[in-house]
Structures
1.
Amino acid sequence: MTESPIRVGVLGARGRMGATVVQAVEGAEDLRLVAALDAGEDLAGLGDAQVVVDFTHPDAVMGSLRHLIGHGVHAVVGTTGFTEQRLAELRGLLAAKPELGVLIAPNFALGAVLAMRFATQAARFYPSAEVVELHHNRKADAPSGTAAHTARMIGAARAEAGLAPGPDATTSEVDGARGAEIDGVRVHSVRLPGLVAHEEIMFGGEGETLTIRHDSIDRSSFMPGVLLGVRTVVSRPGLTVGLENVLDL
Ligand SMILES: NC(=O)C1=CN([C@@H]2O[C@H](COP(=O)(O)OP(=O)(O)OC[C@H]3O[C@@H](n4cnc5c(N)ncnc54)[C@H](OP(=O)(O)O)[C@@H]3O)[C@@H](O)[C@H]2O)C=CC1
Ligand SMILES: O=C(O)C1=N[C@H](C(=O)O)C[C@H](O)C1
């Protein structure tokens, strides 16, 4: 007997990512699109969705997640803006719903996940690391969720290896010229029309540099990861942060 398709709802359905997700879900035989909502639409319109995919806005996502968890709906979230405080709140809400899964991934592109993994492996071998992320100029947040996640992963690997802050002789700077500091790692944001989503992770050491670069040149790059998330989250209770955990990297 064939299994019934997973019923999927999409939040942010008229946005750049949401519209691409709608198409991807419609094209998948084992999934059925049951709702596609955007800003201002009542979440009751999600109907009997089993899994909801959220690509909206950092200011909107927590409200939606509170509703989804309260109504027993699994969630796959690409929206950025997750702080430790937000994650702690979600863990608290999920504790009362042991069967429910929420997957939050700052980046659903396979290459971006691999780039972060490779960067984490490289981190302990170099005294200095910096991240440059480059995106389209319609992006709401800076730095990107991916760059923040990358910096945190590198920062953790550096701390575990007992590395001191990278050597840096800067004593005078224009505000912002050295980027934002996340867990001891400098992160720089570029916004230009024509770009989609790109990241360079740069390491410097004695007489050499190592650069790991990933480019999403089309939003279709995120879809295999999103669909994998939808198929996985229904049998993965609790909060999962990062697609690397689903891919078991
Ligand atoms: N994890 C990943 O792999 C990726 C993550 N992202 C992230 O996804 C998010 C969306 O990006 P993108 O698609 O480019 O943004 P867009 O602005 O193109 O799309 C967001 C859509 O969500 C709508 N929206 C806002 N609030 C709500 C709400 N409460 N309920 C339903 N819909 C809402 C917006 O409507 P309106 O415009 O009217 O406000 C808009 O149509 C960002 O945080 C981005 O960083 C993006 C790409 C990949
Ligand atoms: O807004 C985007 O476009 C993207 N957002 C995510 C992020 O902030 O990391 C993922 C990807 O970089 C595209």
Note: The first helix runs from residue 16 to 26.
2.
Amino acid sequence: MNVRVAVIGAAGRMGQQVCRAVESADDLDLAGRFDAGDELGDLGGADVAVDFTVPGATLANVLHCVSRGVHAVVGTTGWTDDRLAEVRTALDERPAVGVLVAPNFAIGAVLTMKFAREAARFYESVEVVELHHPDKVDAPSGTAVRTAQLVAEARRDAGVDPAPDATASGLDGARGADVDGVPVHAVRLRGMVAHEEVLFGSPGETLTLRHDSFDRESFMPGVLTGVRQVRERPGLTVGLESYLGL
Ligand SMILES: NC(=O)c1ccc[n+]([C@@H]2O[C@H](COP(=O)([O-])OP(=O)(O)OC[C@H]3O[C@@H](n4cnc5c(N)ncnc54)[C@H](O)[C@@H]3O)[C@@H](O)[C@H]2O)c1
Ligand SMILES: O=C(O)C1=N[C@H](C(=O)O)CCC1
């Protein structure tokens, strides 16, 4: 039997793309399209809901899904440890429900995070630059925040010193946002979709990891992987990597 999928944020850039991807898949049926102001109710009888909305709305949407026993695949950014803890608490009451929260569903972005984590302990310096379309409402991107957190964790585990930086004076923001000690710089530029560079440096060499999403189609294989697997993966999963066997 086909998996019934509801899309929340269905009128948005990602929501529209997800609706098309679900409608094109032989094993999935689109159970409902929901956007701001719509009652989620029983989510059109969906088995799985996909949320691409806004940081201020996604937690309430996910809690609604969990309370109705509907699995959730979430691409919306802006998640914090406190918000994730609320989802875990809700899942305690619904142990069979799966929730996947992933800041980036593009396979190359997931691989970039993995490679960055591997490289992190070998270099003195590291900075992250993310570049997005100017209609994006949050900065830095969820992907850049997670990349910086993973890199910082790997450096801490390996006992690497903080990156050198002699800056003694400067304009506000010139050195980017500090995410766990890793500078993260956000560019907003018409023509961009979603791009990230992780720059590593040591004496005499640099390593640059770069990923580019030129089209939102790049996120669809990852989203559909999430939709197809989430029912078999109860509890909260953060990041798509385990779904890809990474
Ligand atoms: N994880 C990924 O791979 C990935 C990829 C692209 C975008 N994103 C993230 O997805 C989110 C959406 O991005 P977008 O470019 O589609 O944005 P968008 O602004 O085009 O779409 C958001 C949609 O959500 C709707 N919405 C707002 N509040 C709502 C609510 N309470 N209930 C239902 N719908 C509501 C809006 O009306 C809009 O249609 C952002 O957080 C973005 O960072 C993640
Ligand atoms: O277009 C966006 O907005 C994107 N947001 C995600 C993020 O913040 O990391 C992923 C890429 C696209």
Note: The chain has two domains: 3-101+217-244, 107-214.
